[in-house]
From TrEMBL, chain A:
InterPro entries: AAA+_ATPase, ABC_transporter-like_ATP-bd, ABC_transpr_MalK/UgpC-like, Mo/tungstate-bd_C_term_dom, P-loop_NTPase
Organism classification: Bacteria, Pseudomonadati, Pseudomonadota, Alphaproteobacteria, Rhodobacterales
PANTHER family (alphabetical): ABC TRANSPORTER ATP-BINDING PROTEIN (PTHR43875:SF14), MALTODEXTRIN IMPORT ATP-BINDING PROTEIN MSMX (PTHR43875)
Native source species: Meridianimarinicoccus roseus
Molecular function GO labels: ABC-type transporter activity; ATP binding; ATP hydrolysis activity
Limits of the ABC transporter domain: 3-233
Highest taxon above the source species: Bacteria
UniProt protein name: ABC transporter ATP-binding protein
Family under the similarity heading: Belongs to the ABC transporter superfamily.
Gene Ontology CC: one annotated term: ATP-binding cassette (ABC) transporter complex, substrate-binding subunit-containing
Keywords: ATP-binding, Nucleotide-binding, Transport
TrEMBL record, chain B:
Pfam families membership: BPD_transp_1
Taxonomic lineage: Bacteria, Pseudomonadati, Pseudomonadota, Alphaproteobacteria, Rhodobacterales
Primary location recorded for the protein, binned into one broad class: membrane
Similarity annotation: Belongs to the binding-protein-dependent transport system permease family.
Protein name per Swiss-Prot or TrEMBL: Carbohydrate ABC transporter permease
Subcellular localization, as worded in the UniProt entry: Cell membrane
Spans through the membrane: 12-32, 84-105, 117-139, 151-171, 204-229, 249-270
UniProt membrane topology term: Multi-pass membrane protein
Highest taxon of source: Bacteria
Gene Ontology biological process terms from the UniProt entry: transmembrane transport
Cellular component terms (Gene Ontology): plasma membrane
From TrEMBL, chain C:
UniProt membrane topology term: Multi-pass membrane protein
Location of the protein in the cell: Cell membrane
Family from the record: Belongs to the binding-protein-dependent transport system permease family.
Species name: Meridianimarinicoccus roseus
Superkingdom of origin organism: Bacteria
Transmembrane feature ranges: 21-46, 84-105, 117-137, 166-190, 211-233, 275-293
Subcellular location, principal: membrane
InterPro entries: MetI-like, MetI-like_sf, Sugar_ABC_transporter
Protein name stated in the entry: ABC transporter permease
Keyword Cell membrane: no
BP-aspect Gene Ontology terms: transmembrane transport
Annotated keywords: Membrane, Transmembrane, Transmembrane helix, Transport
ABC transmembrane type-1 domain boundaries: 80-292
């Protein structure tokens, strides 16, 4: 089912938690709400579920205003970050709770619960009380409970937050398949950018009372709306360097200088010449090259860390600025001492230093630049 | 505290002994007295050596007091029954009224809820006679004078605030998400209240009920003002009994033992919750 | 999961409104108590009237006269004095004793827990029955305490029947019943205190008396305040113990507020004076209970926060 939020405002006492949030999610789509804690993600889910009332704005499900519709009538399934299992009921009764509400027959309930439990590999602990379950089993029980009623809208509040790393890894692989099999509209809350990228058809980045950018994972990664979002996505974190773009000799293009080596910016950044900017370079947008390569920047190699499928090298520029460079593991890297780095200029991001907003290529003046979201 | 000097150890022991003696002696002494005849009670000097007898208890239970002057009817068992009935019924009514209200105050929170909860609490601290004296006149008019219904109503003054404030705390302790989860699963607020909130607050509700029972049982002034002889609980009845039985001290002692035994038993059973109850839910034991 | 019907479209059903629900839930309890509010206002009216049950024809409003009369009424000032002495004496003794016992039993040992449960027994005794127990023990004929008094050289020590020792006797009964109340609250308080400051002080070799005054007492203050105010409010209204022991006698020695009001109403059928007395008592307790509730609430929040 489709879901549409318009200008949602929520205050607790005097503190405004959500300030004019609008969002629409299409049928069968998985939208990830991503953002640091305190950004209002959980509150937003509760508003959609109907257990908390908004102070302003409307929530529509399939085009119908949900004002005054009780949570039990919204056809929603929800998994809570802290699981919120019913402590006095066994896993079976927990999972069956959406079905008992509908007066489903005993056998039908047993069958559905069994099926969901098998899918989530908890069919052997169905008669255990929550306190007898391991954390992973609790998490799966909570998920099973949200799925059992075959809801049209599924709200998942950071379901992997409170489980150990191994289980989180497994579930991250399993979840997309599971969600697809549900054919439901999913809103998934997480603080983990990898989870967001892996699961979301689209990602809504929340920060400071509202949504800062909505887009596909690719959009958010390649074209972040601002420095903050650029920093939140990517591991290791994006390199940010203060620069002042200048007109390139002759060609009419724009370049920045890194350690006195000119780096040409691809695309139309003409309006930025002479303004204070921040250059964003993803670690993978740089590579080590042989000394003497034209435009190569000399750096000092400080340390090297293997990180799963890639290796990250911490280097220092001649001005003492830290730059991280990553390369696929297995590719030979530089020795200690001085190495040379080339920049893939087409992957460079440019931000306005004063506002933090990204400057899209082709814009004539940073002042005219509007948030794409 | 590990380096306690011997002197301090002795002083501490002495202090504890004195404390135990002061607080336990009256109970022990009355208990002993209840197994004695008037002859042994009136001995000078008093002694703890005597031949125990159950005659005091049999007299109370059969309701017949044999004296030199003849047989005297005593209604003590009636008082005991009244205490039991009044306390049980008051607690039942109190739970019925108080638990939903506690849920409303603790979980739903609404405009004015705190003010109302405090108003209810302040009843606990008003002088009971202030209400009781005009009430005697009203009760005469509306036919509630000297009825169980009227008494049970007035008993709510002590029972309700207690139940309300203890149970409220237990409802507040249930994570809201658990109730939300049940609502979202498709259940109405009422079945959420019944299937989630009530079972999870169960121990607190039981404790509040037990404590309210003890307080109702120990109440004196309500029944003194509002009840005539055949509706009086043991607290009032025992006092009348002293006058009626004249010098049958053994029976008075036995009556006291029978009257305080139930609250002692309940207190032992509910001791884990006593601190919480006595502080109206403010302090956890 | 195809067997179960997919959730129907969101629907609206007739339901008790979300906003009305809490009111509906608390209404029965409220109504029950509002029934009690009516007599309260009646009492206010009575207190402003000349009203004797024996002379119903002479009933009329005399406005503040009942209160004004108190000014020059030695019986009223006696009541005031007796009530205050009773409250100050009982709470003072109970506080010192309760704190002392709580400190003695502070360590969580089997024995200490057993003793603290045992000491709760007086508190579980109905105050009226407690008075009766002490009455039996102070009986001039056979009372064990009268016998002890004689052993100690007090000839014909008459406890509650003697005007000079009547207050002492009821205070002892009150102390016997209610010290455990203060003890158990302070014990819970002491045991809930964080241990680090005490460990630090003991490592630094700070004298124990200093620790008590500078660490224990200040940290225990919310508990002390709550227990004390609670007891003062109850003690100033004490009725059961005094009425069961002497019905206010001998003479007017123990006519505290509620006893005096009770006697005025039922013996002298002076409703107006009785109501005015109770209104003054109410004003005192209302003031105290407001102070109390603030403290109690702060303690409650704090304790719940830690739990």
């Amino acid at each position: 089912m489709s879901l549409k939020l318009t200008d949602i405002v929520k205050r607790f006492k005097t503190e405004t938690v959500l300030d004019g949030v609008s969002l629409s999610v299409g049928r069968g789509e998985t939208l990830v709400l991503f953002g640091p804690s305190g950004a209002g993600k959980t509150v937003l889910l509760r508003l959609i579920a109907g257990v908390v009332d908004p102070d302003g704005g409307t929530i529509e499900i399939e085009g119908r205003d949900m004002d005054g519709v009780e949570p039990e009538d919204r056809g929603i399934g929800m998994a809570f970050q802290n699981f919120a299992l019913f402590p006095h009921m066994d896993a079976m009764a927990n999972i069956a709770s959406p079905l008992t509400a509908r007066r489903t027959g005993r056998e039908a309930i047993a069958e559905t619960v069994g099926k969901v439990a098998r899918m989530l590999k908890i069919d052997h602990v169905l008669h255990h009380k929550p306190k007898e379950l391991s954390n992973g089993q609790k998490q799966r029980t909570a998920l099973a409970r949200a799925l059992a009623g075959a809801p049209q809208i599924l709200l998942l509040d950071d379901p992997l937050r409170n489980v150990d790393a191994k289980l989180r890894f497994e579930m991250r692989l399993e979840l997309p398949r599971l969600l697809r099999s549900q054919d439901a509209t999913v809103i998934y809350v997480t603080q983990d950018y990898k989870e967001a990228m892996a699961l979301g058809d689209r990602i809504a980045v929340m920060n400071g009372h509202g949504i800062q950018q909505i887009g596909t994972p690719e959009d958010i990664y390649l074209r972040p709306a601002n420095i903050e979002i650029a920093r939140l996505f990517g591991d290791p974190v994006i390199n940010l360097l203060d620069v002042v773009p200048e007109a390139a000799d002759g060609s009419g293009g724009v370049q920045v200088r890194l350690s006195d080596q000119p780096v040409a910016l691809v695309g139309g950044y003409a309006g930025t010449v002479g303004t204070d900017c921040v250059l964003g370079l993803r670690p993978e947008a740089m590579r080590f090259v042989d000394p003497g390569t034209p435009g190569a920047i000399p750096v000092e190699v400080e340390a090297e860390t293997p990180l799963n499928e890639k290796t990250v090298t911490l280097t220092l520029t001649q001005r003492g600025r830290e730059i991280m460079v990553s390369r696929p593991s297995g590719m030979p890297g530089p020795d200690q001492g001085t190495a040379y780095v080339a920049v893939d200029a087409k992957d460079a991001l440019l931000f306005d230093r004063a506002t933090g907003q990204r400057i899209a290529p082709g814009a004539h003046s940073p002042a005219l630049q509007e948030d794409v979201a | 505290m590990d380096t306690v000097s011997p002197l301090e150890r002795v002083l501490r022991g002495l202090a504890i002994t004195v404390v135990i003696l002061f607080f336990m002696f009256p109970i022990v002494w009355i208990f002993l007295m209840s197994f004695q005849t008037n002859e042994t009670i009136l001995r000078v000097p008093p002694s703890v050596v005597f031949e125990p007898t159950l005659t005091n208890y049999t007299a109370l239970i059969t309701g017949k007091l044999e004296t030199a002057a003849g047989t005297l009817e005593i209604a003590f068992m009636r008082n005991l029954w009244n205490s039991l009935f009044l306390s049980t019924a008051s607690v039942a009514v109190g739970l019925l009224l108080g638990v939903p209200a506690a849920y409303a105050f603790g979980r739903l929170k609404f405009r004015g809820s705190e003010d109302i909860a405090f108003t209810l609490l302040s009843f606990r601290f008003a002088p009971p006679l202030l209400v009781l004296l005009p009430l005697t006149i009203y009760f005469q008019k509306i036919g509630l004078a000297d009825t169980y219904v009227g008494l049970i109503w007035v008993y709510q003054l002590i029972v309700l605030p207690l139940i309300l404030w203890i149970v409220r705390g237990y409802f507040e302790d249930i994570p809201a998400d658990i109730e939300y989860a049940y609502r979202i699963a498709g259940h109405s607020w009422f079945s959420t209240f019944r299937k989630i909130a009530l079972p999870l607050a169960g121990p607190g509700i039981a404790a509040a009920g037990l404590l309210a029972f003890i307080f109702a049982w120990n109440n004196f002034i309500f029944a003194l003002v509002l009840a005539s002889a055949d509706k009086q609980p043991v607290t009032v009845g025992a006092l009348a009994f002293v006058t009626a039985s004249g010098i049958q001290y053994g029976q008075v002692a036995a009556g006291i033992v029978l009257s305080i035994a139930p609250t002692f038993a309940l207190a032992l059973y509910a001791q884990r919750y006593l601190v919480e109850g006595l502080s109206l839910g403010a302090v956890k034991g | 999961m195809t067997q179960t019907a997919p959730a129907a479209l969101p629907r609206r059903r007739f339901r008790v409104g979300r906003r009305a629900l809490p009111y509906l839930l608390s209404l029965p309890a409220l109504l029950t108590c509002i029934g009690i509010l009516i007599p309260f206002f009646t009492a206010v009216v009575y207190s402003l009237q000349r009203y004797r049950l024996s002379q119903p024809w002479a009933r009329k409003f005399n406005w503040g006269e009942n209160y004004l009369n108190f000014m020059s009424d030695p019986a009223f000032w006696n009541t005031f004095k007796v009530s205050m002495s009773y409250a100050i004496l009982t709470v003072g003794i109970e506080l010192l004793l309760g704190l002392g016992i709580a400190l003695l039993l502070q360590k969580r040992t089997r024995f200490n827990n057993f003793v603290s449960i045992m000491l709760l027994m007086p508190l579980m005794t109905a105050p009226a029955l407690a008075s009766l127990m002490w009455k039996l023990m102070t009986n001039p004929g056979f009372g064990i305490l009268s016998y002890f008094a004689e052993l100690l050289g007090f000839e014909d020590f008459r406890w509650a029947s003697d005007p000079s020792t009547a207050l002492l006797t009821v205070v002892i009964v009150d102390v016997w019943v209610y010290t455990p109340f203060i003890m158990i609250l302070l014990l819970a308080g002491l045991r809930s205190l964080p241990t680090q400051p005490f460990e630090a002080a003991s490592l630094d070799g700070v004298p124990r008396l200093f620790v008590f005054w500078r660490i224990t007492l200040p940290m225990l203050t919310p508990f002390l305040l709550t227990a004390t105010l609670f007891r003062v409010i109850e003690s100033i209204q004490q009725f059961d113990i005094i009425y069961a022991m002497t019905q206010g006698g001998p003479g007017d020695k123990l006519t505290v507020f509620q006893v005096e009001a009770y006697l005025n109403f039922f013996q002298f059928t002076n409703v107006g004076r009785s109501a005015a007395l109770l209104m003054i008592l109410w004003a005192i307790t209302y003031f105290l209970s407001n102070v109390f509730i603030k403290n109690w609430l702060r303690l409650r929040e704090k304790q719940r926060g830690e739990a």
